[in-house]
Amino acid sequence: MRRAETRRSDRLHPRFKSPPHRHLPELSRISLPTRPSENEAPHISPRLQLHLLVIIFAATTILGRLASVSAPVLITWRCLIAAVGAFLCVAAMRNRKIWLGWRQVRNLLLIGAIIGLHWLCLFGAVKISNVSIALIGLATTSLFTAFTEPLFTRRRIRPFEVFLGLIVLAGIGLIAGVEKGHALGLFVALLSALLAAIFMVLNKKTVVDGADPMVMVGWEMVAATAVCFLAVPIFDSGGFHALFVGDAWDWLWILILALVCTVFAQDLTNRLLRTISAYDFNLAANFEPVYGIIAAAVIFGEHQNLQPTFYLGSLAIMLANFLHPRLQKRFAPTVGS
Question: N or C: more exposed end of the chain, with fewer CB within 10 A?
């Protein structure tokens, strides 16, 4: 009976036969059009995100100028809120631990203390002078790094970096020689840049060793909080009572500094470095003083209090910053790529 049914099916007209299985397309090779999810965030170009990050960095000094509290009070609250925010982010994510062992935590606390001193000097320069002076002093960070990195990594100093350093010194001389009233502010800003160059090199070594970036932020902010807290009675006439901030606007600037300019900016930095080379990152970061000085001129009218030679010296410093990654790519292509 079964043989008869088989012979009957063989005699069917070809149009009624099922096509051979080998002619069916494999489902794994079929790409169906998909509609974007309503909850999916629109894609933003990494380079656009990078310049957004640089604008955030430039905004820190503007916020420091807007706040009416002293630099130690401002940084103490900024670091404390940033530490809590970073640890909450780590706690909300699985497979991440806050305690890294005493040795690594000790190193992070040391770096955090340097960061605290750096921010004290930076915002101190803003309070002593203005945003433009502070940002021009901070613009020398990459060139200080050219000397601190060989010191910590034991590599040779590159001649082109010494050449760029001389250009920066000429620019600083032009600014300091004319802006007599801002000499102290410029010196404090340069000290801030030197401290930034030190902790950036130490941070880079720690990241290479495999530490989680957000955990690093948390522990570093703990130490920075302690340093700035101890500095309050030294640099604020109100003593520890100055920590009781009553102005709502000051709290707004502090929260933006802590959550946007510290926690969010650090997270965005770590994600961008996965897709953007260090060369492109450093090149875009050179726009920070440009954005900051323009914003200070628009918001505070600082351009009216600065001499033309200030901009000539600033141009020399920014020129050196623009040349640095290009010369580094040509003469030391294995670094920062």
Answer: N
Q: Indicate the average pLDDT of the chain.
A: 79
The 3-state secondary structure of the chain reads: CHHHHHHHHHCCCHHHCCCCHHHCCCHHHCCCCCCCCCCCCCCCCHHHHHHHHHHHHHHHHHHHHHCCCCHHHHHHHHHHHHHHHHHHHHHHCCCCCCCCCHHHHHHHHHHHHHHHHHHHHHHHHHHHCCHHHHHHHHCCHHHHHHHHHHHHHCCCCCHHHHHHHHHHHHHHHHHHHHCHHHHHHHHHHHHHHHHHHHHHHHHHHHHHCCCCHHHHHHHHHHHHHHHHHHHHHHHCCCHHHHHCCCCHHHHHHHHHHHHHHHHHHHHHHHHHCCCCCHHHHHHHHCCHHHHHHHHHHHHHCHHHHCCHHHHHHHHHHHHHHHHHHHHHHHHCCCCCC
Q: What is the pTM of this model?
A: 0.76
Percent of the chain with pLDDT over 90: 26
